[in-house]
Design goal:
This protein is of the alpha+beta class and 186 residues long. Helices cover 26% and strands 28% of the residues. Bound molecules: zinc ion (ZN). Residues 138, 140-141, 143, 153, 155-156, 158 line the site of zinc ion.
Length: 186
């Protein structure tokens, strides 16, 4: 197997990708809001709306609700984005102002989704590469290199890594002839 720590990180990243994508898609027709109303009737809220996750803070005496926690779902309206003073690729910001006293930052769901997809992609590419080397195939074109003594793949010209059986990928991993990957002893 690939290093356990990296595999664990890749699985966590995959979860971030799945949750961000699911919440992002959902936020286009249902806006979820987790809010805490303070004793002074100011609100601190996490709000998913039209592909963006907002952290919103309002001034005192602005909330019609009594103090406490609220979880609310309502149909999505484009009301939050209209209030932003800065908008770049879905990243939004609104500073304090004397009239509304509502501040927020918005992070588009695509951002954690893209970040979360990186590690699983690297994991998959490394897995495929090590598997091909272990099976005696060219990492680039899958040409059968068993018995081949050349330095480069005769099919695509790609440099052939050190022979399968004792391959160290530089990250403490080793490919054995049976195709299994093992961690090298330190
Ligand atoms: Zn090749």
């Amino acid at each position: 197997m690939l290093s356990r720590r990296f595999t664990f990180f890749a699985v966590l990243s995959l979860l971030v990708f799945i949750v961000s994508t699911a919440l992002g898609v959902r936020s286009f027709w249902a806006s979820d809001r987790l809010a805490r109303i303070s004793q002074r009737k100011g609100a601190l809220a996490l709000d998913s709306n039209s592909g963006v996750l907002y952290l919103i803070k309002t001034g005192d005496n602005q909330s019609p609700w009594s103090p406490g926690w609220y979880l609310q779902t309502r149909p999505t309206r484009l009301d939050v984005a209209k209030m932003s003073t800065h908008d770049f690729l879905g990243f939004q910001f609104r500073g304090d102002d004397p009239l509304f006293h509502t501040r927020f930052i918005g992070i588009p769901f695509w951002f954690p989704a893209v970040l979360g997809a990186i590690a699983p992609c690297i994991w998959y590419v490394r897995r495929v590469r090590l598997r091909r080397i272990a099976l005696g195939l060219c990492v680039s074109c899958c040409h059968d290199l068993r018995g081949c003594t050349d330095e480069c793949c005769p099919n695509c010209g790609k440099l052939i890594p050190r022979p399968a059986g004792a391959l160290d990928d530089g990250l403490g991993l080793r490919v054995d002839m049976d195709g299994s990957l093992r961690e090298l002893p330190p």
